[in-house]
Design a protein that fits this description.
This protein is α/β, with parallel strands linked by helices and about 230 residues long. Helix content is about 45%, strand content about 25%. The structure holds calcium ion. The site of calcium ion has 5 residues, from loops.
């Protein structure tokens, strides 16, 4: 069952999304409020992707995102934002969302984003053989999709994990932002390059000794990023 949570208080938008998800082979579960969404996720632990509207009658979508992430780093999260919420997009990503879609969106675009996220959060993890990469203080386990720094588990989202894996597979190599986007988000990704920078910023906060003076993920100006540990 490919369960996708749809949190949206406007019933017309919600039905539109739900109908399109069913058509694409997903099994949508619907929530109108943040609290309802959190309860549904507790009842459906197999949910792999959550679509979260930002403006809701009770707690906002960012808070819902934070609360989901506090207990689950594996689920894929896409924020549904209005055009006027340009800055909020970044805030949403900083609180742990993997992607965002701006309203009004086409069903094709939304489904493509969900497909991409769905593939990243599940199938790859199941198929990958167990393997450990150890570099400097970091230990990455491909079977559990976990990263430890100095023996301490670093809580990463699936996207952050995929970026770490890409870096640790390519130590010392300058990777362009396009390389990172293509490899982590997939070539069919519709979004913008800056999503790479937003995720790198968040990853630095989690893994660098001092995120303002990063030493593991260094910036290659005008190009991209380089890993060294
Ligand atoms: Ca709304």
């Amino acid at each position: 069952m490919k369960i996708v949570l749809v949190l949206e208080d406007e019933s017309s938008i919600r039905s539109f999304v739900v109908i399109n998800l069913r058509r694409s082979g997903y099994e949508p579960i619907e929530a109108e409020t943040g609290e309802q969404a959190l309860e549904l996720l507790r009842q459906n632990p197999d949910t792999r992707v959550a679509l979260l509207d930002v403006m809701l009658p009770d707690i906002d979508g960012f808070e819902v995102c934070r609360r989901i992430r506090a207990g689950d780093s594996r689920i894929g999260i896409i924020m549904l934002t209005a055009k006027s919420q340009e800055m909020d997009k970044v805030t949403g990503l900083m609180t742990g969302a993997d992607d965002y879609v701006t309203k009004p969106f086409s069903p094709t675009e939304l489904t493509a984003r969900i497909d991409a996220l769905y593939r990243r959060t599940g199938a790859a993890a199941d198929a990958e053989a167990s393997c450990e990469l150890v570099q400097g203080p970091f230990r990455l386990n491909t079977r559990n999709r976990t990263v430890e720094k100095n023996g301490q588990r670093v809580k990463l989202t699936q996207i952050e994990y995929s970026i770490m894996k890409l870096f640790m597979d390519n130590p010392g190599k300058a990777l362009s932002r396009e390389d990172i986007l293509n490899s982590v988000w997939g070539r069919d990704y519709y979004g913008e390059l800056k999503i790479v920078d937003v995720n790198i910023r968040r990853l630095r906060i989690k893994i660098e000794d001092n995120p303002t003076i990063p030493t593991y993920i260094t910036t290659v100006w005008g190009f991209g990023y380089k890993w060294g540990a």
